[in-house]
Amino acid sequence: ELMTGYTMLRNGGVGNGGQPWMLRWSNRIRLTWLSFTLFIILVFFPLIAHYYLTTIDDADDAGKRIFGPRTGNELCEVKHVQDLCRIRESVSEELLQLEAKRQELNSEIAKLNLKIEACKKSIENAKQDLLQLKNVISQTEHSYKELMAQNQPKLSLPIRLLPDKDDAAFPLPKSNRNCRLHNCFDYSRCPLTSGFPVYVYNSDDYPFGGSLDPLIKQAFEATVRTNVYITENANIACVYIILVGEMQEPVMPKPTELEQQLHSLPYWRTDGHNHLIINLSRKSETQNFMYNISTGRAMIAQSTFYDVQYRPGFDIVVSPLVHAMSEPNFLEIPPQVPVKRKYLFSFQGEKIESLRSSLQEVRSFEEEIEGNAPADYDDRIITTLKAVQDSKLDFVLVEFTCKNQPKASLPTEWALCGERDDRLELLKLSTFALIITPGDTHLVISAGCAMRLFEALEVGAIPVVLGEQVQLPYNDVIRWNEAALIIPKPRITEVHFLLRSISDNDLLAMRRQGRFLWETYFSTSDNVFSTVLAIIRTRIQIPAAPIREETAVEIPHRSGKAAGTDPNMADNGDLDLGPVETEPPYASPKYLRNFTLTAMDIYRNWNSAPGPFHLFPYTPFDPVLPSEAKFLGSGTGFRPIGGGAGGSGKEFQAALGGNVPREQFTVVMLTYEREEVLMNSLERLNGLPYLNKVVVVWNSPKLPSEDLLWPDIGVPIMVVRTEKNSLNNRFLPWDEIETEAILSIDDDAHLRHDEIMFGFR
Fold first, then answer.
1. Least CB-packed of 85, 470, 589, 710 within 10 Å?
2. What positions belong to coiled-coil segments (predicted)?
3. CA gyration radius for the chain?
């Protein structure tokens, strides 16, 4: 109805046409009512509600409260809030526990802060104590140096002594046969620091030079040019050398002429003191022309001596110079094994003077052992050796007549048979080589015996020398009992038993030593000449010339890659390898025995048995005596060019008796174009105790890659460039090596740190 009325009003009313003013009036009333209603709802209703809510809880009766707080039990009675109550109680308990823990942690933090403060104070006190200890150590070191300076002052080199030109005050011996170093050698020309200068006369400047064997003269001159001791200044020379043989027979000068020529040498000085006359034999076994020549105080070096001519400790018995201008063919030398060869022993020779009587009056072996001795020992030797050969207990070969014309020989000497190649072929099949000394006991050594010895050592036949009076080459510096058997002639009947009783191990050891002696002191002209000089130098107690150090040409390389630690290398269990060096590398102490070593050793060895001096059997590459050898092992050998005094260092003194305060070692690593393998090997050295530096010997002509980054292992790494690719480059005495101990290793070798430390200790 309202809507109908409203419609009617808009349409102007019903019946009487709908008055317009009525429509306007009704619209105004409707808008006013609607606005008033909205005002009441939006303004007054919130005010009333707010007032009611703020005043309703002020009632005194708590039971009439509607919005006021109620007790927990009343709320919990409400079913939908029971779970919330339980959660609130649990959270409240956890909060209480956390609060207790927080208070406990605060208490512990306070205690730790107190400890930190106490530690800081302790550190400060320790720093003060350390500073005081450093001051004490510094003062102690200073005091120690002062005491050492007082007790061991530095020694300056002695003043160079030069004798007068005429040497008028030099005393004369009663006889030239009595010449020894103490009365026939002028030590004033050879100070310890002189370096052993040697002056060599030019044989072509003298008449006898035209009679010399051309090959021997050429070989001698070539050797002289390369020797480190040769000087051209005769005024400072210690020893003067003149070559007089081997001479060619047709143009050989008379003894009186040769004597006059020797006495006319510009530095002969009336008696020839400090002179050495060398007479080398190459093909002749009969030359002993020095026997009838007055040589004064000059020393003689040759292969043939009579007892009235030989002066022990003064003259030198040298080996024959077989390979004059050519190197021996080592490919033709038989191997050292098998130990036993076809023949137990062999001998070929002929002695013209007594051979006929020996063959006519030959007696049986049974007659020999009954005591019916022949005319001389050579006859007994012939009889006994023939009996051994006829018994066929062992396969032996003995021949006392030559199939062809025998070589020339001295009286009572056994002449060589056949050519050299034929003799060598027989010796290659022989375990032992018999060497029968001359029947004349006054002939202490002959060139023929020396030649037999040379050939036996060359092919590995162990020499058996019959005759204890013999003076073998270099007998005062070589222990011949280690390479040969020297048996008196009266024991000829026991020789067979002795040879069969030697074990294979001893045979092989003697053969190896003989091979070493032959290679080092007999084989070439350089070896013979160097050995003669070394004998004289050792006799007068002058140290050897330093071995020339190899200049290390460094290859530039970049370093900076931090080296890692290989767990397999670093796992050493509870073993304490030693401290890692935290200070710059330091060199070994300087070698202080350069001038005393030779004197101490020569005195000890000349007064020991069975041999007067033991040649070193450890360096078969250098034909020199022991003091010229360079051993790089710590504390066991000779090192004339530097290094320490030896020993194992302070850390091992208690167990091993070290005698130096501290010691380090150098790693020498050989490599060839294997950069990755090399880098891995270098990284494995990181953290290695006692390491001084690493010397990488780069054997390849191709340089390392420019972008190669080398590891930083805490010590210097020096890359050395070589002139040629050789495995022997690892043994060169590089001048960058400053320690005695050296670890020579390949780039692909894997050694744990404890293994390296075991070797160093």
1. 85
2. 81-150
3. 53
